[in-house]
Amino acid sequence: MSVSSIITTVLQIAGSLCFLLYGMKLMSDGIQKSTGEKLQSALHFMTGNRLTGLLTGCLLTMIIQSSGATTVMVITFVNVSLINLEQAIPVIFGANIGTTVTGWIVALFGFNFKIEVFAIPIFGVGYLLTAVRSWNKQGMGQAIMGFGLLFIALGWLSSAISTNADAVAFLPAIQRLGVVSIPIGVVLGMIFTALMHSSSAMSAIVITMAYNRVVGWEFSAALIIGSNIGSTIDSIMAAIGSNANAKRAALVHVLFNIATALIALVFITPFTRFVDFIVPGKVEDNIVFHIAMLNTVFKVGGTLLFMPWIKQIVGITMKLVKDDDKAKFTTYKLEFPEAAVRNSPMTYIITAQNEVCRMADIAVQMFDSLQYGFQDRSGRFVTDHYDNLVQQEGYIDQMHEQIINYLIRCEQLNVDIKQNDMINSLIQITSELESLSDDCLSIGVYIKRMTEKQYVYPQEDFNRLLPYLELARQLLQFVYKNLNKTLNEAQLEFAKELEDQIDAERKALKKVARSRLEGGADVKAELLYMDLVRQIEKTGDRCFAIAGQLKS
What we know:
Layout: H1 3-43, H2 50-64, H3 67-79, H4 85-98, H5 101-109, H6 116-131, H7 138-163, H8 170-175, H9 181-196, H10 199-211, H11 217-230, H12 233-239, H13 244-266, H14 268-278, H15 287-306, H16 310-320, H17 345-375, H18 380-411, H19 417-453, H20 459-463, H21 465-481, H22 489-518, H23 523-549
């Protein structure tokens, strides 16, 4: 072949591969947009036992056509404690099985029915669904477009390989090395899959090459086994900057895939013979189905082998990955994983939602600690609670900055209108929570000053602050319990009634303070009392503003 012919062939194959990857990404993203939010929201309660966890991972991956997306979701949910490590492992195992469906789609439709003839009309239907906004079927349309592109790319790839076999002549040359060719095939499968971030795409490519007689049966098996290791790249990326349990979940994925690959590699001859036995017909005549079956048997077999040992696997990862530093309210860290650019934005919005809940939890702790200052005026609030209050406020400041940055990164993903609204609402809630923590600290400062200055107030007037504080606490608790929910009109009315009661009580308490001033009370003490009353009222304003962001 001339140099120009080689360059043309390489570009044809590379272009076909890019179309294949783009088609799979378009299909996965479209399915996730149309159904992914519900699927991801359901993931954390579909893992009650090992079997449901396994089925969840398998079905979710079959639907969204990406084991990488599923494992990243799982690691993200472990990171924010929606599911624990023991619940996550069966889902990861199931995701490995679910990813084999792509191979069966390619084997069934990619070559026997010449589906590429219908691929362009299919793509056109998908484009029509995305173009007509009033139908609200953009996600489905995108998935159909991806499906069409997938088979257009397979047709191009098959044609490029069959007519320009010299461009991939290095693969048959490797196969002629004998036994050494198998580990080389595993390494090649691992590298190519890691570069493409898709074991599904790799299996489609292997099936296409085998169909065109470029690679043989055992070498195809080696490439498939290697792709299983390469598919862990997304888990590794998702675990960067995560907590210890999320890193353990990623480690489980890596160790499981490596272990099953090594076992399959050691027994590759009996393994391929077993697949030959269960798939009818000669390998040469039916190799696409042999490869699809091999991929399925390989991953199902590995899952059956390791499923009984989940508790032991958890124990091993606990020893390999040390626990996080348990120091409270020191340094907060929330990193945005680069894997997010390839997966559904909803996964990362859910992470942000749970971090906002953590932020709200600390704000509730701050507010509750203030009650000690009102109930016990001996000074114990200052010695037992004030320093912790200062630390919590500083920690919330860090959370505010990093969560906002995280949400801004989420906005830069391919979000739809609803997701964009969710992000904007979370930004507003985060800012209100940060202001609420400032208010709590200010109240703590006022209590501290009252104690240090030994200001004296009539007991009955000071006692009136307790039900006033309780109104604000009720509104805060109401918002906290409904933070990731949508409030209806009745609930919003309830929040408004509490906020009105707080406003009315503030006016009444300020009148009491003014009456004492007119009666000759200490001016500084009464001004501090009024500042305290006003600051408590501001906490109610913050809570009501958050409630406004939760309305339907």
